[in-house]
Every structure is written in structure tokens, then in C-alpha cells.
Amino acid sequence: MAHGNEIKIISGNSNRHFAKSVCSNLGIRLADTTVATFADGEISVSLHETVRGSDAFIIQSTCVPINDHLMEMLIMVDACRRASASRITTVIPYFGYARQDRKSKSRDPITAKLVANLITSAGADRVLTMDLHAGQIQGFFDIPVDNLTASPLFVDYYSKKFPNGADDIMIVSPDIGSVARARAFALKMDKGLAIIDKRREKANQSEVMNIIGSVEGKRIILFDDMVDTGGSLCGAAVALIEKGGASEVYACASHGVLAKQAVELIEKSPIKELIFTDTIPYHSDTPCDKIKYLSAAPLFAEAIERTFQELSISSLFR
After folding, report:
1. What's the mean per-residue pLDDT of the chain?
2. Could you report the per-residue pLDDT of 154-204, keeping only the tens digit for each?
């Protein structure tokens, strides 16, 4: 039994192309809305069609400029709530502030929890996201959270790229924090797992990268949830080639944040190919032939349809 009389897909300005792709997969149109900015920087949201009684899905990645896009989403939620939407789901393909999920030193805020409180207080009923940097953020919300994973997309891609069960492929976690994620991916790929252990021996010295596991002669797939500045990923690739004796290095991550000089670093690195999903649009003025994108829109469209029909989405994780 569906919740609400119809699906309404509403998009902010962060990734309208992604929202249109989701609509295309669902066979519906994007709702007619305007998200603008006043001269003083205040955000204005206008819904140009009724959402009364609808199951509203607000698609907005909280990527750069993160605070503007977060505020847009909160205002869109409030607009839908005041316009009597039956249920409001915030679809956040990339969840910003997810790295601030704990106190790493005295007097640190836990900003991910604050953002969760803001979304709930604005009036959202559910959250649909992908590959949260820290899975425990689901517990920061007092509303249901569905945390999709991009790994089925990558498994499908690499199974076609390296057919016939290539036995020289190995999955590598670029740091200790990503081991659980990389292990699950390695199990799905039926491949071995190695780990990069990074540590700084002394203050003001560069990180030393130790490789846990034998990667000599292997074709490596580095697997992570996001690439921000690219320093850790590219450093890991260099270590795998120079210290580990790997033959080739490929990489994939759900979210391509690509801040600062990330694209330039990737271009100069030994990484042969880097795959992202399109949860964050590629804004770089510096094109890089190594970077390619897979669309997560069909996965989100299926999750939205199942949510609307009150069906399980657990099969999307396999």
C-alpha cells in the first residue's frame, strides 16, 4: 500500500542532473520548483505545483557549497511540510559533515548529529542516502534511515572489466578505517584483501605507509567511500607500486568530492582508472581521462519506488 497519493520528486540546485535521471528511471517528471537566492544571500524556495497528500522525495546532495545546499534542503522540507505533503523523504546521495561523527579531541562538536537534528526538526519523515562515511550516523536520527551502498555497481563494473574470475585481482583498503567496507566488497568480488596502514612516525614528517598483505604482481582495486583531496588515495597507489610490487592500480569510491588539487594529483598518480558514482556532480575545470562515473540514479529510483509502495529495499544491498 503506497503512502501518499503519488510520488513527487523535488530537487534543489546541488545535483539537478541526478534528480532528472532518477525521474527518468521512474518514468515521471521533476516537480516544478524554483530555488533561488536573494541579493543578501538568503535562499528562496517556491513550489509551483501542489504536493498535498503526496509522497515527497527531496533530492539534494550536501556537497560544495555544502552550507548553501544544506540550507536549501531544510527550506524545501519546511515548504513541503507546510504544503501538506503526506510524507517527506530527504534523499541525500552524498551526506556532508559525515566525517564529523565523534569527538576526536576536547571541545569538538559532533556536527553530523547536529545536521541529523536539523533535518528531523525541519519535518523530514525519512532519510535515503548512500555510503555514509560512518555507519553509526544512522543512529543519530530519530527517523528511519536507509543507507544504500554503491558496491553492487562496482562489482558489476569490475566483473565485466576483469572477466573469467581473474585471479590476480586484489582489493585494498586505503586505510584502517575503511577495512570493514573493503572487506565486504572483497567478499562480493570473491577476491583477497590487503590493507594500507598509515602512520606518522614523528611530528612534521610525512606519513609512512605499510602494506598488510602481499600485493606483489597483483592488479589492485583500491576501494573507499569518498575521495576528497586525493592525497591518501594517491599515496597508497604509490606505495602499492613502489613498496608492494603491484603491477597495476585501479580505484573506486562512492563519492568524488575532489577538493583542492585532487584532480591534478590523480592525473599524476600511478592510478590507471578511478571510478565514482554521480552522487556529486563533476565540476572540475581540469578534465582527467582517468576519472569515470557510474550512475547511481537507477538504484535510488528503485529505492524510492519501493519506499513509496512500502516494500523492502534490502535486496538493493546485495
Report:
1. 93
2. 999 999 999 876 789 999 999 888 999 999 999 999 999 999 998 755 554
Amino acid at residue number 173? S
* 191 is a catalytic site residue: no
Distance, CA of 5 to CA of 2 (rounded, Å): 7
User: Which residues partner with 294 through β-bridges?
Assistant: 277
pLDDT at 287: 84
Topology of domain 7-149+297-317, CATH: Rossmann fold (3.40.50)
Query: Over 60: is that where the pLDDT of 133 sits?
Result: yes
* Closest to 299 (Cα-Cα) out of 97, 115, 119, 154: 154
CA atoms of 27 and 101, how far apart (whole Å): 37
Q: Per CATH, is 151-294 categorized as 3.30.457.10?
A: no
What is the Cα–Cα distance from 34 to 285, expressed in whole angstroms?
A: 27
Contacts for 277 with CB less than 8 Å, ≥ 6 apart: 93, 130, 150, 153, 254, 255, 293, 294, 295, 296
- Per-domain residue ranges for the chain? 7-149+297-317, 151-294
Angle (CA) 104 186 164, round 5°? 155
- The single residue of 160, 198, 202, 290 carrying the catalytic annotation is 198
